[in-house]
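Email to the structure team, subject: Nucleoside-diphosphate-sugar epimerase model.

Hi all, the expression group asked for a predicted structure before they design truncation constructs. Nothing fancy, just the tokens so they can compare against earlier work. One-line instruction: predict Nucleoside-diphosphate-sugar epimerase, return tokens.
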Amino acid sequence: MTDARTALVLGATGGIGGEVARQLAARGWKVRALHRDPASLANRDDRFEWRKGDAMNRQAVVAAADGVQLILHAVNPPGYRDWGQLVLPMIDNTIAAARASGARIVLPGTVYNYGPNAFPVLRESSSQEPLTHKGAIRAELERRLQAASSDGVRSLVVRAGDFFGPGSTGNSWFSGGIVKPGKPVRAMFYPGKTGIGHQWAYVPDVARTMVRLIEQEQRLPVFATFHMLGHWDADGTQMIGAIKRSVDQPKVKVRSFPWWVLPLMAPFSEMFREMREMRYLWKEPIRMENASLLATLGEEPHTPWDEAVKTTLTALRCI
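Reply from the structure team: attached below.
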């Protein structure tokens, strides 16, 4: 876009938050980024207007949102630490900021909101009956956004599969389970079984989709939700195959993910506890339907498998 519009980004140093922020800036948006200590950031993007503040501080979020048309809520506690105490207060602060500024909230959604009763095809209308603690928090987060829409607070939820791509962190199955960042790919640990499909999402494609939907503001309902097809691995072999081709090692060993070790590590690690809870998402195929997205945009941004995977591995210093 060429007109001067301003977006507040919560989570601009994260994978999806940073990517959406960069794409918005490239489209002519002014980007305001909230961070607890922006002066400490070694490689911060100078295109952004950095504001010092904590997403847990309502006054700071409301002040940072003054005059903006968009609030990207991509803040995510690393390693799942203190999720129950942080996630919901932060979305409440964002809702308060949107109510004060009139901005639309944009939220990256996940499949954790759903239980097996909604499988195997997830649609925007599918019932959210999560099995896990994290899923229950995510579902409540969206419920609060929908409740706020009754008095005019606008939201956009873009739901995708497991993230991979530049900037993906240890919270991701790709960089936290299948490969080891900073090390050559000598072996892989795959969480699922051959024949079981899995839903992936390349971060730049998700960001591109969000930005294109944001630019459809006049067509969006007050509470809008869209699902992305992303990178659908129909039998559990496409991601592994793309990694092998990217590192030019067709005989890389692929081992089953050691699920048995998670109960042993769970008492000492919040991340391992959360990973253990998510195992149900690998036991049967789960696919996202993107009919609503196609009806709105005409197409879904999609980077070819090998290009997306090689770019991810390069960013993770695995190549």
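Residues 83-101 form the longest helix (19 residues). The radius of gyration is 19 Å. Ping us if the truncation boundaries need rechecking.
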